[in-house]
Fold this sequence. Notes:
- This protein is an alpha+beta fold.
- It contains 14 helices and 19 strands.
- It has helices at about 30-35, 60-70, 95-105, 140-150, 175-180, 185-195, 220-235, 240-245, 250-255, 265-275, 305-325, 325-330, 335-340, 345-355; strands spanning about 5, 15, 20-25, 25-30, 35-40, 45-50, 50-55, 60, 70, 80, 85, 95, 105-110, 125-130, 155-160, 170, 205-215, 285, 290-300.
- Strands 13-15-16-14-17-19-18 form a seven-stranded mixed β-sheet. Strands 1-2 form a two-stranded antiparallel sheet.
- Strand 3 and strand 4 form a beta hairpin.
- Helix 11 packs across helix 14 (about 345-355).
- The protein is elongated, with a radius of gyration of 31 Å.
Amino acid sequence: xxxxxxxCSVCGAIGTEDSLYSFDGRLYCEDxxxxxxxxxxxxxxxxxxxxxxxxxxxxxxxxxxxxxxxxCDGCGRLIHNDDAYYEDDSDFAYCRECYEMRKRRPIKGYSxxxxxxxxxxxxxxxxxxxxIDKGGEEHENAEILxxxxxxxxxxIYCKHDGSITDGFEIVSHPMSLEYHMKNMNWKELFSKAxxxxxxxxxxxxxxxxxxxxxxxxxxxFEEQEKVVGRMVFFVERHWNxxxxxxxxxxxxxxxxxxxxxxxxxxxxxxxxxxxxxYMGRYMAVNLENSDTVEIRLFRGTLRYExxxxxxxxxxxxxxxxINMTDREMEEMSxxxxxxxxxxxxxxxxxxLKLKKLYVNDSVEESEEM
Length: 369
């Protein structure tokens, strides 16, 4: 009995049931089947080539491609999601080789946050974020600065920051104020950064942020909150003096370090209003972090004396907030505050004089970088 003759739906070739293949309701000869369709390497289902992703002969149906595969954001290679590596909390996927390479790069991703290493003694530690610009987001330059700061241990690291045009962010591990002043070689680091054409003050992009360890504020959350409330009250009440100290314009403060504008007669009421006006982390006193309170007031600087003065000022604010009662904080004038500062805080006293914030004395102003 003669076999039934069948026709390929693509080329019209005549075949039999044994020589033609059925797919999606149509008949194909072997050549046309290979030309028109392909088998997914992941699920082994045959699909039309128009409904498949094919790269270097590796085929995936669109469903498998969308749900189980990514492209490495470093080299562009196709990788299975199970073989993808992610940098910190970012959405960028990397193959193992690119991930390992990026881990070794001096400038880390924005979300990079290593386990903190504490330097110095006592309970109160300060971590610094200093943005530098105009010298390039160059790994070679970052490596030079890291070698200076970290020759006796990892004390700083460098990160990408999207708000910086052509530079990066220098971040310190937590250090006591004394360690920042006597052991950390900030002066050498700043000198080299300037030599590499970086600037911080003379930009429209850079800030200096100082994180204060909440653990120093009390043994319980309630105790810590009382201290934080006094810090917020101080900043709100003495805003005009702090604006002058900060070297920022009101426009940049409004964008990156805004005031809560909730001043009330009492610290408690001021703090409650501030928390009720939650506005994200771009506040002069950022309350978003669980382990630190971040003071974001200051314009960036590569001038050592200005940098240390900012640290000393934050240290003085913390000291008042920790050791004063609400009533004492509420009654303290700016003059009362500056008269408390001990003579060993020479950088702070000189800077306050420079900005005419220390009684009526002043000193000659020098150029910022």
